[in-house]
Amino acid sequence: MSIDPALAFRGTSLTFANGTRALDGIDLEVRPGEFVSLVGPSGCGKSTMLRLAAGFETATAGAVDVNTGHLGYVFQEATLLPWRTVARNVELPAELAGVPKAERREAARDAIERVGLAGFEKHRPSQLSGGMRMRASIARALTMKPELFLFDEPFGALDEITRQHLNSEVGNLFVRDGFAGVFVTHSVPESVFMSTRVVVLTGRPGQIAADIPVPFDFPRDPELRYTPAFANLAAEVSAALRGAKQEAAA
Amino acid sequence: MTATLETPVETTGTEAPQRKRTLWPFKTAPIRVFAPVAVFVLVIAAWAASSHLLVPEASRFLLPPPEAVIAEGLLDPMARNEILTALWNTVQVALCGLAIAIVLGVLFAVVMSQTRWAEFSLYPYAVVLQTIPILAVVPLFGFWFGYEFGSRVIVCVMVSLFPVITNTLFGLKSVAPAEHDLFTLHGATRFQRLWKLQLPAALPAMISGFKISGGQAIIGSIVADFFFRQGVPGIGRMIDVYRQRLATEELLTALLLSSLVGLCLFWAFDLLAGRVDRMHGKR
Ligand SMILES: Nc1ncnc2c1ncn2[C@@H]1O[C@H](COP(=O)(O)OP(=O)(O)O)[C@@H](O)[C@H]1O
Ligand SMILES: [Mg+2]
User: Fold this and answer.
1) A-B C-beta contacts closer than 8 Å
2) Which residues are near ligand 1 (CB < 6 Å)?
3) pTM of the complete model
4) Which of A35, A227, B7, B42 lies at a C-alpha separation of 20 to 30 Å from B251?
5) Three-state DSSP class for B167?
6) Are B178 and A71 in contact (CB < 8 Å)?
7) A1-70+146-245, superfamily in CATH?
């Protein structure tokens, strides 16, 4: 591939100040049009990889290159400010960047529409279901027009049906915008359904145990989950994950 | 692919239920009114019973029954005016002190929240405010600042500052790490973080602090007045006068009305807290 990666880990390691070695020698490139899922045992450094990409943490060895200023980040919780309405929450990034009111209202309205929350602009987060809150959170990230879109286990707390809905919707956004996506999850089927590649990490310190391409075309039909090809791939990821866990235990 | 996602939105799970129509026309639940009223009636009854049945006729002036207190403390225009005028002076001092304590306390807490250096160097002294025996300080303030309004206000500020500082500081620091990350991600300035994240998040805790400080300020105002024995008299001085005169009816009236003022202040903050909680989606 000749396109520059939107995100590149180059021999990246991170040891926290308290001595916890979270990541060790990660090499990973994610290009526009790629959607990479990260799976691995809990505490193996998946969130830390996203936090490095977002600049919340600094690598203690190696480098993290981000080649875009358009970064979308969806946190594990919806992380909406409870005293703000949906519209005002979605507007927040532009507000902090000093974008004029009319302009950011407009952008927020578009984003809210794209995640199917039109009509809920004036609602407060407490009046929304978990799934709707997550949609608002995605809308907020969309206002950044992300070229690199990071998701940290965003749907872990949702029920299965809502989760599958949102999987398809993020897929639609990916198809339309062609961003580089990194999606942390602990659900194997979700990782396969969402991505063009599944990267399996070992237990702490996280290292890349397997990098499994997912060949299915986009847009993906929800029924894909029930095909034999899907099941085979899920089994492969699962096996790699088990291997990674055993390695961690050994 | 269409630009818009078309999957239907799930219905909201936590919409406030429609309130049922009943004979009770108020927002507050009946139990919130009847329960305290019942306690009030019981206490008054116990008071009346003790006064009439336990205390011998000759020393009944030590614990006059409720009806005597109402007659001599509230219904007697002379006593009533005397008490209400004094109380108003006390309340003015207290409110002024409280307002200053709120402004100063929030300011201190904000400064302390911004740098560890400021927090570590100032916090111990905020605690000292709480531990200084106010009775020893009042006469000193009298010597230094005189016995009028300003001096009394300083006493009130001193006793009501600490709850504002601690609660505000606690609130400012209670912001979830993910919310801080969000602001970091979008390059928020220190001021934006404070104004758009920390202060709004701290509001409920701040108001809890104001509630405590309100009561403290009134007590401060009364104590200053009681020990100054000079300057425009407030309810503290009247309490002293009634004590010397063995005017228990007036003494009790002054006591009850002072508590009532504190209670009203508390309610006012409670109302405000309710609004803030609704704003935060908590009620
Ligand atoms: N700020 C920090 N200081 C010390 N240790 C941390 C810090 N943040 C995370 N860790 C530790 O680093 C490891 C990786 O964390 P994380 O990336 O959150 O794991 P996960 O793969 O579950 O997302 C965990 O053991 C966690 O406890
Ligand atoms: Mg994590």
Assistant:
1) 102
2) A 16, 18, 20, 22, 40, 42-48, 204
3) 0.88
4) B42
5) helix
6) no
7) P-loop containing nucleotide triphosphate hydrolases (3.40.50.300)
Q: In this structure, what DSSP letter does residue A6 have?
A: S
Which atom of ligand 1 is nearest to A20's Cα? 5
Among candidate residues A73, A37, A41, the one with its CA nearest the CA of residue A207? A41
In this structure, the residue with its CA closest to atom 16 of ligand 1 is: A45
What are the structural domain ranges in chain A?
1-70+146-245, 75-145
- Indicate the pairing of strand A148-152 with strand A7-15: unpaired
pLDDT tens digits along A133-155? 999 999 999 999 999 999 999 99
Question: What's the complex ipTM?
Answer: 0.94
Q: How many Å lie between the centroid of ligand 1 and the Cα of residue A48?
A: 6
- β-bridge mates for residue A181, sequence order: A35, A149
Best mutation target among A129, A134, A140 (most B Cβ atoms within 10 Å) is A129
Pull the structure tokens for residue A174: 């990916």
Range A155-185 burial, b when 16+ CB lie within 10 A, else e: beebeeebbbbbbbbbbbbbebbebbbbbbb
CATH number for domain B70-282, candidates 1.10.3720.10, 1.10.10.10, 1.20.1250.20, 2.40.40.20 = 1.10.3720.10
